[in-house]
TrEMBL record, chain A:
It comes from the Bacteria. It is a multi-pass membrane protein. CDD domains: TM_ABC_iron-siderophores_like. This is Iron ABC transporter permease. Its main location: membrane. Signal peptide: none annotated. Keywords: Cell membrane, Membrane, Transmembrane, Transmembrane helix, Transport. One of its GO terms (molecular function) is transmembrane transporter activity. The chain crosses the membrane at residues 21-46, 72-92, 104-124, 136-155, 167-192, 212-229, 257-282, 294-315, 327-344. It comes from Guptibacillus hwajinpoensis. It is found in: Cell membrane. Belongs to the binding-protein-dependent transport system permease family. FecCD subfamily. The keyword Iron does not apply.
Automatic annotation (TrEMBL), chain B:
It comes from the Bacteria. Coiled coil: none annotated. It is a multi-pass membrane protein. This is Iron ABC transporter. SUPFAM superfamilies: ABC transporter involved in vitamin B12 uptake, BtuC (SSF81345). CDD domains: TM_ABC_iron-siderophores_like. One of its GO terms (biological process) is siderophore-iron import into cell. Keywords: Cell membrane, Membrane, Transmembrane, Transmembrane helix, Transport. It holds the Pfam family FecCD. Its main location: membrane. InterPro entries: ABC_BtuC-like, ABC_transptr_permease_BtuC. The chain crosses the membrane at residues 12-34, 66-85, 97-116, 122-141, 153-174, 194-216, 237-263, 283-302, 309-329.
Length: 349, 336
């Protein structure tokens, strides 16, 4: 067992895989590097060293304005949202033991979408101007996403939670949420439908520093909670019978894990919208890199998810410049073929 | 499950009553709506057309709508029944398995990138999209040693549907004008469609419906299990391919006219089974009749829920269908 270094405390103990640590460190490096480059690229090009200077307050006024006001919050949001979605997907895949599970399929994204367009519709006056501040929109989206997650959870409850019922009911609920979202889009003016459509596709455009500071503690707390729980996910991956035999409290663990997963996905979609396929792709890529031990899978998934959304956003705002394409278009464009490949690869499992 | 109509005589009777209800609903569909019309005006529009507003509304709008409602409802329901049979999955239907999403995607690509507006092209594109999507979902669902399991098939369907709809979504973000054009269509609606649109697809829908009735006896053998069917001398691949072709014609045809209307294909075959039991020679015609009834009533209701605006009928079928879907999912997938 020289591959591992053990780490033990009173309530927490895990083995650290040395190779995994190396991968995590290099991924962190890659994320930071990509972020610096991405912050620099845009209408005004700023060199990476100038970006670092501006971030720490030693740059020119112009650079500091561009970096701190506009680009940094946006990139930070891409990192946070990508990481949260990826971890949410990793939890679901571990729990449902199916490589195709993801927050997109459980109706979480569409719950957020319905709440967002509902918010825009309910709080508009006759001239279609908003009567409350747009700052409340993420809260509305979050509530919608979490409610949808829990509704799926409650409806699939029948002497406990079966993963297959959970997935099927998620799919069913998605249909009705989608339908109601379209209904609200049709009732309102076309520009509102267009705004809502951008949200549904998923974009980190227009993020401000406050958004990042709101989401950050939420994601961090849930991630820490998850790390404590990670051994239980490892156990669930062995199957219900084995897990029960090993003394796992299946039901309580599932509820807690679902709560964490929904919370993470809900937080991400509240600010970034329905960026698709990240929760599906990132855990797979992570598993290829470090295997499926949950303790290392979580941080690696998070980093991969951050990379994916950051790169999708970079492509989206540069490729068709001056047009901005929402990041979600590219995550879907990469994610969908990847997904088909996955299905093909996993055919004998 | 104990079914309601046990004798052949009662089944024919039920079918006849169903057909009468369809006719009655089509007549109501002509009369009720934002512009209310009296029954005598409606009759006059056919016998002595005078060019008044009411008469124009009846001939150009309401009548096509009633006919399209019946045709689309019937074909989605029959497509659903065939799908549930060949996949032996109680939750299979064109909307859940991504067939509708594939057809929509093909049409939106054509509208945004190639400015296609011809109706004939619409239906061919819808067929193409439906065929590609069903092929991908079916192949992905059958891969592997265990073969076709409901879980794999449903997940593959949901994922393919998600893929096509996010790509559709992305194209619409880039092209706001196209969004305006296709938004109502995307929600699934039979309002404002001309008779020409129905004319363009009715041959395919007719082939699909008649074909489904002819194939139903073979389907009965197939649902006993692939091995049993083979043992009885059936060329199962041939029957499955035939059924798949019919599904593409029916689902593609209705999406071309009405857009993706959700969950009709899943609810109706179960209702049909409730009346007739498990004989597909009866399930197919009953599904057709009940599908028409469901869609026509949902469409009449859609005119009233957000008056004076109209809700797309696809929203109503989704709202009606989801509780049913949840019920089936809870009943059929009991194992932990």
């Amino acid at each position: 067992m020289t591959k591992y270094t053990s780490f033990r405390m009173k309530t927490l103990s895990f083995l650290l895989d040395r190779r995994a640590i190396l991968i995590i460190v290099s991924l962190i490096g890659a994320v930071i590097l990509t972020a610096l480059i991405s912050i620099g690229i845009g209408e005004i090009f700023i060199k990476p060293d100038a970006v670092v200077k501006a971030l720490f307050g030693y740059g020119t006024d112009m650079n500091e304005l561009v970096v701190k006001q506009f680009r940094f919050p946006r990139i930070a949001m891409a990192i946070l949202a990508g990481g949260a979605l990826a971890v949410s997907g990793a939890i679901l895949q571990g729990m449902i033991r199916n490589p195709l599970a993801s927050p997109d399929i459980l109706g979480i994204t569409w719950g957020g979408a319905l709440a967002t367009i509902g918010f825009l519709t309910v709080f508009s006056d006759k001239a279609n101007a908003l009567t409350v501040s747009i700052q409340w929109q993420p809260l509305a989206s979050f509530i919608g996403a979490v409610l949808a997650g829990f509704l799926v959870f409650i409806l699939s409850w029948k002497n406990g939670i079966s993963p297959i019922r959970l997935v099927l009911i998620g799919i069913g609920l998605t249909a009705v949420l989608q339908a109601l979202t379209t209904l609200l889009m049709i009732i309102g003016p076309i520009y509102r439908a267009s705004d809502a459509n951008i949200w549904i596709t998923g974009s980190v455009h227009g993020t401000n520093g406050q958004d990042v500071l709101t989401l950050l503690p939420w994601v961090v707390v849930l991630l820490i909670l998850l790390m404590v729980y990670s051994r239980r996910v490892n156990l669930q991956e062995l199957g219900d019978d084995v897990a029960k035999g090993a003394g796992a409290m299946l039901l309580r663990d599932r509820i807690t894990l679902l709560f964490i997963s929904t919370g993470l996905a809900g937080g991400a979609v509240a600010f970034a919208g329905g960026v698709g396929f990240v929760g599906l792709m990132a855990p797979h890529i992570a598993r290829k890199l470090v295997g499926s031990s949950f303790g290392v899978l979580v941080p690696v998934s998070a980093l991969v998810g951050s990379m994916l959304v950051m790169i999708a956003d970079l492509i989206g705002r540069t490729l068709f410049s001056p047009l901005e394409v929402p990041a979600g278009v590219f995550t879907a464009a990469i994610g969908a073929p990847y997904f088909i490949y996955l299905l093909y690869r996993s055919r004998n499992k | 499950m104990a079914h309601k109509l046990k004798t052949v005589r009662n089944k024919w009777l039920g079918l006849a009553i169903g057909a009468l209800i369809v006719v009655a609903l089509m007549a109501s569909s002509v009369v009720y709506g934002l512009t209310s019309i009296t029954w005598s005006t409606a009759l006059n529009a056919f016998t002595q057309f005078d060019g008044s507003n009411e008469h124009i509304i009846i001939i150009d709008n309401r009548v096509p709508r009633a006919l399209i409602g019946a045709a689309v409802g019937a074909s989605l329901a029959v497509a659903g029944a065939l799908m549930q049979a060949i996949t032996r999955n109680p939750l299979a239907s064109p909307s859940i398995l991504g067939v509708n999403a594939g057809a929509s995607f093909a049409i939106v690509v054509a509208v945004t990138f190639f400015s296609v507006t011809s109706l004939a092209a619409f239906s061919w594109l819808a067929f193409l999209g439906a065929a590609v999507a069903s092929l991908i979902v079916y192949v992905l669902g059958t891969l592997g040693r265990e073969g076709l399991t409901p879980m794999k098939l449903t997940l593959a369907g949901a994922a393919i549907a998600a893929m096509f709809s996010s790509l559709t979504q992305g194209m619409l973000v880039l092209n706001e004008k196209a969004l305006e054009d296709v938004l109502f269509w995307l929600a699934g609606s039979i309002e404002g469609r001309s008779l020409d649109m129905l004319g363009a697809v009715i041959p395919y829908i007719a082939i699909g419906l008649v074909g489904a009735v002819f194939i139903s006896k073979k389907i009965n053998t197939l649902v006993m299990g692939e091995d049993v069917a083979k043992g009885l001398g059936q060329r199962t691949l041939f029957v499955k391919a035939g059924a798949a072709l019919l599904i593409v014609l029916l689902a593609g045809g209705s999406v071309a006219v009405a857009g993706p209307i959700a969950l009709v294909g899943i609810v109706v075959p179960h209702l049909a089974r409730f009346f007739t039991g498990s004989d597909y020679r009866w399930i197919i015609p009953y599904s057709a009749i009940l599908g028409a009834i469901l869609l026509l009533s949902a469409d009449i209701a859609a005119r009233y829920v957000i008056m004076p605006l109209e809700a797309p009928v696809g929203v109503l079928t989704a709202v009606i269908g989801t509780p049913f879907f949840v019920y089936i999912a809870r009943r059929e997938f009991n194992q932990l």
